[in-house]
Amino acid sequence: EQFVERYQKPEIPVIITGLTDDWKANENWKVEELFSGKYRNCRLKVGEDDEGYSIRVKLKYFLNYMMHQKDDSPMYLFDCSFDEHDRESELL
To answer: Is 92's pLDDT higher than 80?
Structure first.
């Protein structure tokens, strides 16, 4: 209620910091560890083809792309079922 009255209703911009400071991902998702660890061969969704089928890329290839790309519109991971896979859900 206080946030709504103080910032939302008067439409005052706000930057909220520190919300992810305690997330396990800050420790578990180091690029070096993901690149060489047991998740490197996990296939994650990066898009869909013209027929609506998922396009998947191994994490090791995506990380390599991520570290070297200079695209105006870069590829990104979009895997809404990531947490449904046993091995991948361990990262969360």
So the answer is: no
The distance from CA 67 to its chain's CA centroid, rounded to whole angstroms, is 14
Neighbours of 27 (CB within 10 A): 8
Give the DSSP letter string of the chain: -HHIIIIITTT------STTTT-THHHHT-HHHHHHSTTTT-EEEEEE-TTS-EEEEEHHHHHHHHHH---SS------TTGGGSHHHHTT-
**What tokens does 64 get?**
């390599």
Reported as a pLDDT band with limits 50, 70 and 90, residue 85 is low
Q: pLDDT by residue (tens digit) across 51-72?
A: 999 898 998 999 999 999 998 9
Residue 71 burial (10 A CB sphere; 0-12, 13-18, 19+): exposed
Cα 79 from Cα 77, distance rounded (Å): 6
Q: Report pTM.
A: 0.60
